[in-house]
Amino acid sequence: xxxxxxxxxxxxxxxxxxxxxxxxxxxxxxxxxxxxxxxxxxxxxxxxxxxxxxxxxxxxxxxxxxxxxxxxxxxxxxxxxxxxxxxxxxxxxxxxxxxxxxxxxxxxxxxxxxxxxxxxxxxxxxxxxxxxxxxxxxxxxxxxxxxxxxxxxxxxxxxxxxxxxxxxxxxxxxxxxxxxxxxxxxxxxxxxxxxxxxxxxxxxxxxxxxxxxxxxxxxxxxxxxxxxxxxxxxxxxxxxxxxxxxxxxxxxxxxxxxxxxxxxxxxxxxxxxxxxxxxxxxxxxxxxxxxxxxxxxxxxxxxxxxxxxxxxxxxxxxxxxxxxxxxxxxxxxxxxxxxxxxxxxxxxxxxxxxxxxxxxxxxxxxxxxxxxxxxxxx
Amino acid sequence: xxxxxxxxxxxxxxxxxxxxxxxxxxxxxxxxxxxxxxxxxxxxxxxxxxxxxxxxxxxxxxxxxxxxxxxxxxxxxxxxxxxxxxxxxxxxxxxxxxxxxxxxxxxxxxxxxxxxxxxxxxxxxxxxxxxxxxxxxxxxxxxxxxxxxxxxxxxxxxxxxxxxxxxxxxxxxxxxxxxxxxxxxxxxxxxxxxxxxxxxxxxxxxxxxxxxxxxxxxxxxxxxxxxxxxxxxxxxxxxxxxxxxxxxxxxxxxxxxxxxxxxxxxxxxxxxxxxxxxxxxxxxxxxxxxxxxxxxxxxxxxxxxxxxxxxxxxxxxxxx
Lengths: 378, 320
Known about the structure:
The structure holds 2 protein chains of 2 kinds.
Chain A: H1 2-5, H2 12-19, H3 45-50, H4 65-75, H5 77-100, E1 107-109, E2 113-115, H6 117-120, H7 150-186, H8 188-203, H9 206-224, H10 237-266, H11 269-276, H12 281-289, H13 294-317, H14 329-336, H15 345-372
Antiparallel strand pairs in A: 1-2
Helix pairs in contact in A: 4-15, 5-7, 5-15, 7-8, 7-10, 7-13, 8-10, 9-10, 10-13, 11-12, 13-14, 13-15, 14-15
Chain B: H1 2-28, H2 34-39, H3 45-54, H4 61-73, H5 88-123, H6 128-142, H7 145-162, H8 181-214, H9 217-224, H10 229-246, H11 249-266, H12 272-281, H13 285-313
Protein name (chain A): Peptide ABC transporter substrate-binding protein
Membrane topology (chain A): Multi-pass membrane protein
Subcellular location (chain A): Cell membrane
């Protein structure tokens, strides 16, 4: 615990040292040797020279808790592969569409005249005579029941999933930390309110709450939020609503975790020491409590992401989320399931994609939990 | 014990009131005017006011909420907007038995398949059986139920096309609580898919729990005194491994409530969740409020049940 408090004060140059690939300590599977008692190893000589003979240098070879956790994480093959898949998907969702819209020649459509790839490779464009086609050079993953490009819609859907996940996690973390820390640190009425509120939210099925909010407020959002650029256009108006409702259902759990951790941290001696030195409550919370919440917040929010993505896809699947000109993976599954008697492909593609995303985030979450849990040791 | 249950019941009453308040407020402040929607093109000012009065929607907020709450105790949920003044209780009476039937069978699937599979996996720990089993369980657990349901429908459709004359139904529900061959055909796949998430959850949990028990000292003692492996597994380990499983009934109830929406939607089953969905689409607030309260009460009593079971199963825990 002692090491964590001075994380902010560590000079930057030692960090670059620790991350250096020449450093035997950074290699997986090797315990950090206690360098204080030993002479420098030969590989360390150039680094030691670079640090200009700082007498405290070798002692800094201990990894920070974060680096130790990261080392554990890098050894987890499933989690690393999942991380790779997720990074690929994020790139696909962000840079995929602009690239895809520049690939291919012009196409003489029966209804739209001569159009370029920037049109027929966009997620909203429909070609009425190219329904439920298999993969081809023009449509890499084929077309759906309305003649729209499945790959383009898939990339847009992944983008929606990730955007909702990020938004929900931000709200979740901010609300969870604020309320959780206040409840844990001060107790009293705020703690009481949090406990009662959490009880109600646990009894209220989260999905039902989402359905109610997006079903009841949805038409209003469609009407009033659709002129907001990007987030409101293309039938995405309800996404903001869905994200906020989703964050609203999950933040009490985060607050409960944070509260528990804060209660423990409050008992720590360094907090007492800080109090004795005259730090204000605000300073203690900011300097000593919140930085130490790092691992629990990271674990809880990573484990949450796949649930968030499933919920958004589920709401869109039920027809209450993203509306038809727009695209979401859940919406694609629901549209595809209408064609399973004639064309399985349209349903299989989004189902598989959703499965990949959800599994990747679950494995990542498990890996993060195993390696960032403070109780986890090598 | 009775004191504990009473205390919990009073706490639960507050939770139920909180849930009804949230639902009621949402319905009250909803931007859509259901009466206007109901009248459609027959809208006149006079008819509008009349209908509003008939549904007691012209009363002030707290008066309406009070009526709603007192109605709950008389099992009077008011009248549905959409089905032309049909009592909500009547609609619930159609949906609830179907949902309860679906849920109970899914619970049976979860427990009767999940626990033995997990125990078996624990006995075969660290063999290929265990590894593949747990990987499959993890995948089933992680996949959203509507993806599983869609995959199941895809499989059924391709079965139907590849075996002519099979005609296995892809959606819909047979007669509630009747089990002829046709009914079973209708019910089998939805129940299996509905139970899948909880089934995988129980299997994983049962494995962990069993492994923990198997590493205890008294199991080693039992082995040392030369007991048969079967006797160790079933008489000594199995019963103790069940304790943590009992407590997660509330978790599996959570799976059932949220899973219901997707399963009933995908397989077109006329249960309470599907009723909620159609009512949400039609802004039929009395029905929505009623179904929400029913679902919330189900969850709350599930939690209470698991707490009680916890104290019953594990004598170390006293109910103070």
